[in-house]
TrEMBL record:
Residues 182-202 are annotated as: Disordered. It comes from Phialemonium atrogriseum. Keywords: Metal-binding, Oxidoreductase, Zinc. Its EC number is 1.8.4.12. PANTHER family: PEPTIDE METHIONINE SULFOXIDE REDUCTASE 2. SUPFAM superfamilies: Mss4-like. The keyword Metal-binding applies. This is Peptide-methionine (R)-S-oxide reductase. It is an enzyme of class 1 (oxidoreductase). It catalyses: L-methionyl-[protein] + [thioredoxin]-disulfide + H2O = L-methionyl-(R)-S-oxide-[protein] + [thioredoxin]-dithiol.
Amino acid sequence: MRLPPLAVIIRALYTFSKFSRPRAYQRPSKNPTLKSMPSFPLFGSLFSSSASASKMSHPDERTPDEWRAVLSKEQFRILREKGTEPAGSGKYDKHLPSEGVYTCAGCNAPLYKANHKFKSGCGWPAYFDSIPGAVTRHEDNTWGMARTEIVCSNCGGHLGHVFKGEGFPTPTDERHCVNSISLNFSPEDKPGQTNDKPESKA
């Protein structure tokens, strides 16, 4: 009496696992396990951030080669390829000036004022707000989870992510978790100024 249910279960398991190529597991010599990796959405998302972000247009539009000409290799990886620096490694993590402005390391657009920054202990620079209009948010579904990515509104450079409702004693209860490499700092609180970065050739 137990055999029919077991057979049904085996048949169902085989049908379900067929989608992920069970032969890669049963016959590794003919179908290497790596062949099944593209069928997992997570692996594809590790190397390409939200498609909506890459299609957005910004005032400062440059080609990848133009960005490589003005950014270091690590700046390009984070700003243009949406990478992340190791926690605690950034020069602005524990940087808490009383005045000044943080600008985009790619285009020098002003992003945050010094009084927006607070100590969060997360390992990355944290800000509870940004200069109005300086930062753009959009949904980021990479790494198999829904987050809110923040980018420079002027050039689209990846800054990090914003998190809400963590209970920090700030006016907004938000934490803009930003890569230090995505930023520069000017001790003069003049958010309207930009430095002499090459202009967009778009």
